[in-house]
Design goal:
Blueprint lengths: L10 E2 L7 E11 L16 E10 L4 E7 L2 E8 L6 E6 L5 E6 L3 E6 L5 E6 L8 E3 L5 E5 L4 E6 L5 E6 L5 E6 L5 E6 L4 E5 L4 E6 L6 E6 L5 E6 L4 E5 L4 E6 L6 E6 L5 E6 L4 E5 L4 E6 L6 E6 L5 E6 L4 E5 L7 E2 L15
Parallel strand pairs: 1-29
Antiparallel strand pairs: 2-3, 3-4, 4-5, 6-7, 7-8, 8-9, 10-11, 11-12, 12-13, 14-15, 15-16, 16-17, 18-19, 19-20, 20-21, 22-23, 23-24, 24-25, 26-27, 27-28
Length: 343
């Protein structure tokens, strides 16, 4: 991936009516079905389905099929009563977790669109929600600075971690399952040893809210995005600051590491999406096609495409390797609600 590989591309644009605050990109593998009269024949290969999920301030969660460069709605989920602030797919793509300002965390079956569990989070809203790498737990933060781990099987809270800090805005789990990081509204980052479930490091490199965190795929580095406009990269084991990157002109709302360990993307209140190179800590390209705050960015499994969502009510898919960056804009949600900024 080099600077010269990025260029502006044509796009299809449709009207949108609401802000989108969260997205994720995963893959669901259908179990092969063998006909009764096909006994003795080899089973057909599993059918892989690319899924993009979005959560909007219209209270709606949508599951999209991504196929042949196009998107179609698979399920529209309407059980939340307030804005959806976070969505996350399990590793195998079979489950979807969503959290909302209505204080509920809901668990969904991505194949059927059925709600399979409601997790009560108490009388406060659940912000970031994610799955543990083994998909056994749903993890969410709280206003009290606690990080809760809920059993996917039972929906019950099984573990509670104390960041010893303030409102937990962001979370990230390392792929190897060893570390969990939380980012707070006061700029403090807590890193937990999940084998012993104890606080390992406290990182104080930012002085403003931590909107997003992302571990590298090898679990050795941690990216942080903050309202101070900077992105920092830390050595996880030694709690050492590796680099501070600037380039956005406003809050950094989201960061995501590429599966190849060599690149990452960021989104900002300045409306831009930036692609960075890890080795040089330099920005390779800036997409400026969003017209409002970019709240969430995620890579696909191969790392050759990125999805971004924004207050401009659009979902955009960027092709990073074909020699151009293609984007598709779709009608995602249905009502305009002014975005809420945490003070």
């Amino acid at each position: 991936m080099q600077r010269g590989m990025f260029s502006r591309a044509l796009h299809k644009e449709n009207a949108h009516n609401d802000c989108i605050w969260s997205c994720d990109w995963g893959r669901f593998s259908h179990q092969p079905q063998v006909a009764e009269d096909a006994v003795g024949s080899p089973p057909p290969a599993g059918d892989h389905e690319e899924l993009i999920v979005t959560g909007g301030i219209d209270d709606v969660v949508k599951i999209w099929r991504y196929r042949d460069g196009g998107l179609s709605v698979k399920h529209e989920l309407r059980d939340h009563s307030l804005g959806v602030v976070s969505v996350a797919l399990s590793l195998d793509g079979s489950r979807l977790a969503s959290s909302s300002l209505d204080s509920a965390i809901l668990l969904w079956d991505t194949e059927t669109g059925e709600k399979v569990a409601t997790i009560e989070n108490g009388p406060v809203d659940a912000w970031t929600v994610l799955f543990s790498p083994d998909s056994k737990y749903i993890v969410s933060g709280s206003h009290a600075g606690k990080v809760n781990l809920y059993s996917v099987e039972t929906g019950k809270k099984e573990h509670e971690l104390d960041t010893k800090g303030k409102f937990t805005l962001s979370l990230a789990y390392s792929a190897d399952g060893k570390y969990l990081a939380s980012g707070a509204i006061d700029g403090i980052i807590a890193v937990f040893d999940m084998e012993q479930r104890k606080l390992l490091h406290t990182l104080e490199g930012h002085a403003m809210p931590i909107r997003s965190l992302a571990f590298s795929p090898d679990s050795q580095r941690l990216l942080t995005g903050s309202d101070d406009g900077s992105i920092k990269m830390y050595d996880v084991v030694h709690a050492a600051l590796i680099a501070t990157m600037s380039g956005h002109t406003s809050w950094v709302l989201c960061v995501a590491f590429s599966p190849d360990n060599d690149h990452f993307v960021s989104g900002s209140s300045d409306g831009s999406v930036k692609v960075w190179e890890v080795a040089t800590k330099q920005c390779l390209h800036t997409f400026t096609d969003h017209s409002d705050q970019v709240w969430s960015v995620k890579y696909n499994k191969e790392g050759n495409q990125v999805v971004s969502v924004s207050d401009d009510k659009s979902l955009r898919c960027w092709d990073l390797t074909s020699g151009r960056c293609s984007k598709k804009l779709l009608n995602i949600h249905n009502h305009f609600v002014t975005s809420v900024a945490i003070k």
